[in-house]
User: Fold this.
Amino acid sequence: MQKKLNNLKPRSKILIIAGSDSSGGAGIQADIKTVTTLGSYAMTAVTAVTAQNTTGVKSIIEINPKEILNQIIFSSKDIRPDAIKIGMLNSSSVIKSVLKALDLIKVKRIVLDPVMVAKGGAKLIDKQAINLLKSKLIKKALLITPNIPEAEILTKTKISSNEDMVNAASKLLEYGAKNVLIKGGHLKNKIVQDIFVNKKDIKIFNSNRYNTKNTHGTGCTLSSAVTTFLSCGKTIKKSCELGIKYVNSAIKSNPNYGKGHGPINHLNSVKINRKFK
Assistant:
Protein backbone atom coordinates (compact mmCIF):
# COMPACT_ATOMS: atom_id res chain seq x y z
CA MET A 1 0.00 0.00 0.00
CA GLN A 2 2.80 2.41 0.88
CA LYS A 3 4.42 1.90 -2.49
CA LYS A 4 1.16 2.73 -4.27
CA LEU A 5 0.70 5.87 -2.19
CA ASN A 6 4.21 7.06 -3.01
CA ASN A 7 3.45 6.78 -6.73
CA LEU A 8 0.50 9.17 -6.55
CA LYS A 9 1.47 12.54 -7.99
CA PRO A 10 -0.70 15.52 -9.00
CA ARG A 11 -1.53 15.70 -12.70
CA SER A 12 -1.77 19.50 -12.80
CA LYS A 13 -1.75 22.65 -10.67
CA ILE A 14 -4.88 24.72 -10.03
CA LEU A 15 -5.09 28.19 -8.46
CA ILE A 16 -8.43 28.73 -6.73
CA ILE A 17 -9.55 32.33 -6.12
CA ALA A 18 -12.63 32.18 -3.90
CA GLY A 19 -14.24 32.73 -0.51
CA SER A 20 -14.06 30.44 2.50
CA ASP A 21 -17.09 28.45 3.71
CA SER A 22 -16.70 27.56 7.38
CA SER A 23 -19.09 24.61 7.01
CA GLY A 24 -16.80 23.03 4.40
CA GLY A 25 -19.54 22.31 1.88
CA ALA A 26 -18.97 25.11 -0.61
CA GLY A 27 -16.41 27.81 -1.38
CA ILE A 28 -12.70 27.24 -1.31
CA GLN A 29 -13.07 24.17 0.91
CA ALA A 30 -15.22 22.42 -1.71
CA ASP A 31 -12.80 23.56 -4.41
CA ILE A 32 -9.76 22.08 -2.67
CA LYS A 33 -11.56 18.78 -2.07
CA THR A 34 -12.64 18.58 -5.69
CA VAL A 35 -9.25 19.38 -7.19
CA THR A 36 -7.50 16.97 -4.83
CA THR A 37 -9.86 14.03 -5.28
CA LEU A 38 -9.61 14.43 -9.06
CA GLY A 39 -5.84 14.12 -8.82
CA SER A 40 -4.49 17.65 -9.09
CA TYR A 41 -2.73 20.15 -6.82
CA ALA A 42 -4.72 23.02 -5.30
CA MET A 43 -3.37 26.48 -4.44
CA THR A 44 -5.58 29.22 -3.02
CA ALA A 45 -6.18 32.93 -2.81
CA VAL A 46 -8.89 33.57 -0.21
CA THR A 47 -11.15 36.51 -1.11
CA ALA A 48 -13.54 36.47 1.86
CA VAL A 49 -14.20 34.59 5.08
CA THR A 50 -17.79 33.59 5.76
CA ALA A 51 -19.42 32.23 8.89
CA GLN A 52 -22.04 29.82 7.58
CA ASN A 53 -23.53 26.39 7.96
CA THR A 54 -26.09 24.31 6.07
CA THR A 55 -28.93 26.60 7.23
CA GLY A 56 -27.51 29.94 6.06
CA VAL A 57 -24.83 32.63 6.13
CA LYS A 58 -24.22 34.54 9.38
CA SER A 59 -21.48 36.94 8.28
CA ILE A 60 -19.04 37.81 5.47
CA ILE A 61 -15.65 39.43 6.03
CA GLU A 62 -13.83 40.63 2.90
CA ILE A 63 -10.08 40.10 2.68
CA ASN A 64 -8.05 43.24 1.91
CA PRO A 65 -7.83 43.46 -1.91
CA LYS A 66 -4.07 44.10 -1.70
CA GLU A 67 -3.62 40.82 0.18
CA ILE A 68 -5.71 38.99 -2.42
CA LEU A 69 -3.35 40.33 -5.08
CA ASN A 70 -0.36 39.25 -2.99
CA GLN A 71 -1.73 35.74 -2.58
CA ILE A 72 -2.25 35.31 -6.32
CA ILE A 73 1.08 36.79 -7.42
CA PHE A 74 3.26 35.24 -4.72
CA SER A 75 1.84 31.73 -5.18
CA SER A 76 1.98 31.88 -8.98
CA LYS A 77 5.57 33.13 -9.09
CA ASP A 78 6.71 30.01 -7.28
CA ILE A 79 4.29 27.37 -8.62
CA ARG A 80 2.78 28.41 -11.94
CA PRO A 81 -0.85 27.24 -12.22
CA ASP A 82 -2.01 25.32 -15.28
CA ALA A 83 -5.51 26.73 -14.79
CA ILE A 84 -7.46 29.07 -12.52
CA LYS A 85 -10.91 28.72 -10.97
CA ILE A 86 -12.55 31.95 -9.77
CA GLY A 87 -15.45 31.88 -7.34
CA MET A 88 -16.82 34.43 -4.86
CA LEU A 89 -15.66 38.03 -5.46
CA ASN A 90 -18.04 40.08 -3.36
CA SER A 91 -16.99 43.68 -4.15
CA SER A 92 -15.70 45.80 -7.02
CA SER A 93 -12.40 46.45 -5.20
CA VAL A 94 -11.81 42.70 -4.96
CA ILE A 95 -12.59 42.21 -8.65
CA LYS A 96 -10.21 45.04 -9.61
CA SER A 97 -7.47 43.37 -7.59
CA VAL A 98 -8.09 40.02 -9.27
CA LEU A 99 -8.14 41.64 -12.73
CA LYS A 100 -4.76 43.23 -12.03
CA ALA A 101 -3.33 39.91 -10.89
CA LEU A 102 -4.65 38.04 -13.93
CA ASP A 103 -2.99 40.59 -16.24
CA LEU A 104 0.32 39.94 -14.48
CA ILE A 105 0.33 36.13 -14.33
CA LYS A 106 -1.21 35.55 -17.80
CA VAL A 107 -2.87 32.14 -17.39
CA LYS A 108 -5.19 31.27 -20.30
CA ARG A 109 -7.37 28.52 -18.84
CA ILE A 110 -9.68 30.43 -16.47
CA VAL A 111 -13.09 29.21 -15.30
CA LEU A 112 -15.36 31.81 -13.70
CA ASP A 113 -18.17 30.74 -11.40
CA PRO A 114 -20.05 34.02 -10.76
CA VAL A 115 -21.10 33.27 -7.17
CA MET A 116 -23.83 35.71 -6.20
CA VAL A 117 -26.39 33.97 -3.98
CA ALA A 118 -25.84 31.28 -1.35
CA LYS A 119 -27.94 28.09 -1.37
CA GLY A 120 -30.02 29.46 1.49
CA GLY A 121 -30.73 32.71 -0.40
CA ALA A 122 -28.18 35.10 1.15
CA LYS A 123 -26.76 37.68 -1.30
CA LEU A 124 -22.97 37.41 -1.60
CA ILE A 125 -22.07 40.23 -4.03
CA ASP A 126 -22.90 43.94 -4.39
CA LYS A 127 -24.30 45.78 -7.43
CA GLN A 128 -21.04 47.52 -8.38
CA ALA A 129 -19.26 44.17 -8.39
CA ILE A 130 -21.90 42.67 -10.68
CA ASN A 131 -21.39 45.50 -13.18
CA LEU A 132 -17.61 45.09 -13.16
CA LEU A 133 -17.91 41.32 -13.49
CA LYS A 134 -20.10 41.82 -16.58
CA SER A 135 -17.95 44.52 -18.20
CA LYS A 136 -14.44 43.24 -17.42
CA LEU A 137 -14.04 39.86 -15.74
CA ILE A 138 -16.22 37.78 -18.06
CA LYS A 139 -13.86 38.63 -20.92
CA LYS A 140 -10.90 37.12 -19.05
CA ALA A 141 -12.51 33.70 -18.64
CA LEU A 142 -12.37 30.76 -21.01
CA LEU A 143 -15.63 29.52 -19.46
CA ILE A 144 -18.31 31.06 -17.24
CA THR A 145 -20.63 28.75 -15.26
CA PRO A 146 -23.66 30.62 -13.86
CA ASN A 147 -26.70 28.88 -12.44
CA ILE A 148 -30.12 30.17 -13.46
CA PRO A 149 -30.50 32.87 -10.75
CA GLU A 150 -26.98 34.14 -11.54
CA ALA A 151 -27.65 34.14 -15.29
CA GLU A 152 -30.88 36.07 -14.65
CA ILE A 153 -29.01 38.70 -12.62
CA LEU A 154 -26.25 39.04 -15.21
CA THR A 155 -28.56 39.26 -18.23
CA LYS A 156 -31.60 40.91 -16.57
CA THR A 157 -33.88 38.28 -18.09
CA LYS A 158 -36.29 35.69 -16.69
CA ILE A 159 -35.33 32.06 -17.34
CA SER A 160 -38.03 29.39 -17.26
CA SER A 161 -37.09 27.11 -20.18
CA ASN A 162 -34.18 25.72 -22.20
CA GLU A 163 -34.81 28.36 -24.85
CA ASP A 164 -34.48 31.06 -22.18
CA MET A 165 -31.19 29.49 -21.02
CA VAL A 166 -29.79 29.59 -24.56
CA ASN A 167 -30.90 33.21 -25.00
CA ALA A 168 -29.26 34.19 -21.70
CA ALA A 169 -26.06 32.40 -22.71
CA SER A 170 -26.11 34.29 -26.01
CA LYS A 171 -26.32 37.57 -24.11
CA LEU A 172 -23.31 36.56 -22.02
CA LEU A 173 -21.43 35.87 -25.26
CA GLU A 174 -22.33 39.40 -26.36
CA TYR A 175 -20.77 40.68 -23.10
CA GLY A 176 -17.52 39.00 -24.13
CA ALA A 177 -17.77 35.48 -22.71
CA LYS A 178 -16.04 32.84 -24.84
CA ASN A 179 -17.93 29.80 -23.58
CA VAL A 180 -20.96 29.57 -21.27
CA LEU A 181 -22.31 26.65 -19.24
CA ILE A 182 -25.67 27.52 -17.64
CA LYS A 183 -26.66 25.06 -14.92
CA GLY A 184 -30.32 24.05 -15.09
CA GLY A 185 -30.89 22.64 -11.63
CA HIS A 186 -33.21 25.47 -10.57
CA LEU A 187 -35.79 24.51 -13.20
CA LYS A 188 -38.12 21.88 -11.75
CA ASN A 189 -37.88 19.38 -14.61
CA LYS A 190 -37.50 15.65 -13.90
CA ILE A 191 -34.31 15.69 -15.98
CA VAL A 192 -31.72 18.33 -15.11
CA GLN A 193 -30.39 19.99 -18.25
CA ASP A 194 -27.16 22.00 -18.23
CA ILE A 195 -26.58 23.89 -21.46
CA PHE A 196 -23.18 24.71 -22.99
CA VAL A 197 -23.12 27.52 -25.55
CA ASN A 198 -20.46 29.27 -27.60
CA LYS A 199 -20.56 31.07 -30.93
CA LYS A 200 -20.29 27.79 -32.86
CA ASP A 201 -22.09 25.21 -30.78
CA ILE A 202 -24.91 24.36 -28.36
CA LYS A 203 -24.69 21.21 -26.26
CA ILE A 204 -27.26 19.95 -23.72
CA PHE A 205 -26.10 17.69 -20.88
CA ASN A 206 -28.92 15.60 -19.39
CA SER A 207 -28.75 14.31 -15.79
CA ASN A 208 -31.11 12.55 -13.41
CA ARG A 209 -32.62 14.70 -10.67
CA TYR A 210 -32.06 13.29 -7.18
CA ASN A 211 -34.67 13.82 -4.49
CA THR A 212 -32.44 15.51 -1.93
CA LYS A 213 -31.98 18.93 -0.34
CA ASN A 214 -28.26 18.19 0.06
CA THR A 215 -26.81 20.17 -2.83
CA HIS A 216 -24.74 22.77 -0.97
CA GLY A 217 -21.61 23.58 -2.97
CA THR A 218 -22.62 21.95 -6.25
CA GLY A 219 -21.76 25.06 -8.27
CA CYS A 220 -18.34 25.49 -6.66
CA THR A 221 -17.65 21.79 -7.10
CA LEU A 222 -18.67 21.74 -10.76
CA SER A 223 -16.54 24.72 -11.75
CA SER A 224 -13.53 23.28 -9.92
CA ALA A 225 -14.02 19.88 -11.52
CA VAL A 226 -14.27 21.43 -14.99
CA THR A 227 -11.13 23.49 -14.29
CA THR A 228 -9.26 20.36 -13.22
CA PHE A 229 -10.19 18.41 -16.34
CA LEU A 230 -9.29 21.42 -18.52
CA SER A 231 -5.90 21.69 -16.83
CA CYS A 232 -5.20 18.05 -17.71
CA GLY A 233 -5.74 18.64 -21.42
CA LYS A 234 -9.41 17.71 -21.90
CA THR A 235 -11.47 19.79 -24.34
CA ILE A 236 -13.84 22.33 -22.86
CA LYS A 237 -16.99 20.33 -23.72
CA LYS A 238 -15.48 17.08 -22.43
CA SER A 239 -14.41 18.87 -19.25
CA CYS A 240 -17.99 20.05 -18.73
CA GLU A 241 -19.32 16.54 -19.33
CA LEU A 242 -16.89 14.94 -16.87
CA GLY A 243 -17.44 17.69 -14.29
CA ILE A 244 -21.21 17.19 -14.41
CA LYS A 245 -20.79 13.42 -13.97
CA TYR A 246 -18.55 13.99 -10.92
CA VAL A 247 -21.09 16.34 -9.31
CA ASN A 248 -24.01 13.99 -9.99
CA SER A 249 -22.15 11.14 -8.33
CA ALA A 250 -21.33 13.40 -5.37
CA ILE A 251 -25.00 14.40 -4.98
CA LYS A 252 -26.20 10.80 -5.23
CA SER A 253 -23.79 9.67 -2.47
CA ASN A 254 -24.17 12.75 -0.22
CA PRO A 255 -23.49 12.10 3.50
CA ASN A 256 -26.69 13.81 4.74
CA TYR A 257 -24.92 16.21 7.14
CA GLY A 258 -26.55 19.24 8.76
CA LYS A 259 -30.06 20.54 9.34
CA GLY A 260 -30.38 22.53 6.11
CA HIS A 261 -28.93 22.20 2.60
CA GLY A 262 -26.20 19.65 3.33
CA PRO A 263 -22.93 19.08 1.48
CA ILE A 264 -22.27 16.60 -1.29
CA ASN A 265 -19.72 13.79 -1.21
CA HIS A 266 -16.43 14.95 -2.74
CA LEU A 267 -14.84 11.59 -1.96
CA ASN A 268 -17.06 9.85 -4.49
CA SER A 269 -14.20 9.60 -6.99
CA VAL A 270 -11.73 8.04 -4.53
CA LYS A 271 -11.40 4.39 -3.53
CA ILE A 272 -9.91 4.45 -0.04
CA ASN A 273 -7.97 1.52 1.38
CA ARG A 274 -8.86 1.79 5.05
CA LYS A 275 -6.16 -0.62 6.23
CA PHE A 276 -3.18 1.64 5.44
CA LYS A 277 -0.69 -1.10 6.28
The radius of gyration is 18 Å.
